[in-house]
Amino acid sequence: MLSRHSPEASAPLSPRGLSVARFLDGGGIWPAVPALVYLLVFMVAPIATLLTFGFVDIDRGTVGEGGFTLSHMVGVLSDPLVWRLTWRSFWIAVVSTSLTLIFAYPVAYAYGHLRGAARTLLLVAVMSPLLTSALVRTYAWIVILGGRRGLVNQTLLTLGLIERPLDILNTSTAVLIGMTQIHLPFMILPLLAVLSERDRSFEQASLNLGASQTVTFFRVTVPMSMPAIVAGFALVFAVSYTNFIVPQLLGGGNYSTIAVQVYEQTIVVLDWSRGAALATLLLSSCFVFVFAIVAAGNWLTRWSEVRR
Amino acid sequence: MTLFTNRRRFLQSGAALGAALAMPSLARAQDKRELVIVSFAGQLQEPHQWLARQMEAKHPGLTIRLVPSESQDVVAQIKASQGYSPYDAMPNGEPPHLIAIRDSYILPLDPAAVPNATKAVPAFVAKSKGYGIPASYSLIGIAYNTALVKTPPTAWKDLWDPQYKGQIGIPRASSNLGLGFLVAAAKTFGGSETDLTVGWEKLKELNPKVGRSPSQLLQMLEREEIVMAPIWNNDAAGAADKGLPIAFVKPAPGPIAVISFMSAVKGTRYPELVNEWMNAILSPEYQQKAAGAPYYFGPTIEGVEVPEAARAYTPATPEEVAALQTVDWSAIAAKRGAIVEEFDRLFAS
């Protein structure tokens, strides 16, 4: 039997025959087909359905006869409540992502300077929260922050630092605390990969040329880690902006974001068209913000290369 | 003679053999039936569990799966299933019951198939609008933390006592509890089901903390985040039964009674079993069990005695029954979406 690669089979193939041969050989998109089919069925189709629901009338679970309409989208975009909640979603995502970066950077930097067991222990400490569900970690924050019996208030009351328990749970502060802690690993991991593998000779050169440790850190180390900062920032921003569990559990019943509104409209009010229109707004605005972060990151990286 | 004369005969024989082999499993599949019924969460599910075990014993091969869920999640699933509902029967409080009738995802009652329906209190049956059976009723009253409130509240207006401002918990207006309390607030200060303006103003005046569910409100009471909250009698009873410092009062001029209807879901595979389930719900044995400790579901058939332990939670005397407040839910249910949005405009923005 002749192999396709044997000298006997090396007769020139037509362009079409060549592409078929390459396809059968495992080239092109062939290995990706199972993944593509999976994505098509379980991601593209549901998202397309969701987006479509925002532009048709849905009555009792079925699409009405009215056809395409912009009324739901116009209703959502002209509602001041929606804009206030979009601003809140954005603000809480920006602040919690910035806090995550501030807490994550020293950990990733320290990891690069550790060796042996200490390094492994730090990695385990960073990864271990990912072994439990975000829901469980959010409930843990309820125990820590909640009421007079919460750990924080009980400690402060026992120490005599406060007379009345602080209102932390069911406020923006609780949502910020929860989101920052829960999303911390997503910021640490990209930073850790870049900072631990960085070329130290640049920093040594900077120090040898007379720059202080601080100047070297901000002018050399930080610019070198900029790609990881951008990746972590985009990732944590996206999961914070669209997070539904943390605002729902730590923000209380009088705290809402766009993600919470999508749930309310779909499950509670059963207005699927408005729910889908809100989801479209959430999804598209998140895409725009992430794109802006990546574009800003590219610009910053270019700037840092010029300065370096 | 050859065993199979030609290919056609061979295929026919093979098909017959396959069918014969499959028959026992087909027969077994017919015996094995699963009834999926929406139920309450936690301890309040126990009366349903008790009834399910009895029906399973009566029908070999029958499994009754009780799904603890908020009716709102269930409704979304039924709508999404496009006529292939994963549930056979479900309980609904009055507001979602009316919505279920409007959206036609529950079935009208066949009184001939549910003979116990004649035993039910006529006033409750009338509110079912011919769909399902009145399974129980619950009260919306006030729960308070006994360690923090030394003088128990006696009336709805006690929630507006200035000393408790900022320390009152309220439910979201999306739930039956929240809708009921909104109406109670409106009625206490001169409003009504059709004029909720004063109710909204009074809710805002409380500067309240908002719980997403009755269990979240009870947790807030336990953690001393709030001192009082409107709550279901059954939930308060369950918390007190666990030893938490939580007590329940039936506030003047009267707590709000909300009936829960058990109905067959449209598209159920076993309508005769669902009828049997609804009939058993209206049996004196089930009603007595559900009225007992620590569930305290209000009985909906004549002649069920309210046990002594339930007196704090369920009306026992004719005067108490007469004081119960009912709500004209037809005026509220239709506006539910707008009420939820108004709530978010006032409290969540």
TrEMBL record, chain A:
InterPro entries: MetI-like (IPR000515), MetI-like_sf (IPR035906). The chain crosses the membrane at residues 35-56, 89-109, 121-144, 174-195, 216-241, 276-300. It is found in: Cell membrane. It is a multi-pass membrane protein. Keywords: Cell membrane, Membrane, Transmembrane, Transmembrane helix, Transport. Residues 86-295 form the ABC transmembrane type-1 domain. It comes from the Bacteria. One of its GO terms (cellular component) is plasma membrane. The keyword S-adenosyl-L-methionine does not apply. This is Putative spermidine/putrescine transport system permease protein.
UniProtKB/TrEMBL annotation, chain B:
GO terms for molecular function: thiamine binding; thiamine pyrophosphate binding. The keyword 4Fe-4S does not apply. SUPFAM superfamilies: Periplasmic binding protein-like II. It comes from the Bacteria. GO terms for biological process: thiamine transport. Residues 1-29 form the signal peptide. GO terms for cellular component: outer membrane-bounded periplasmic space. The keyword Transcription regulation does not apply. Keywords: Periplasm, Signal. This is Putative spermidine/putrescine transport system substrate-binding protein. It comes from Ancylobacter tetraedralis.
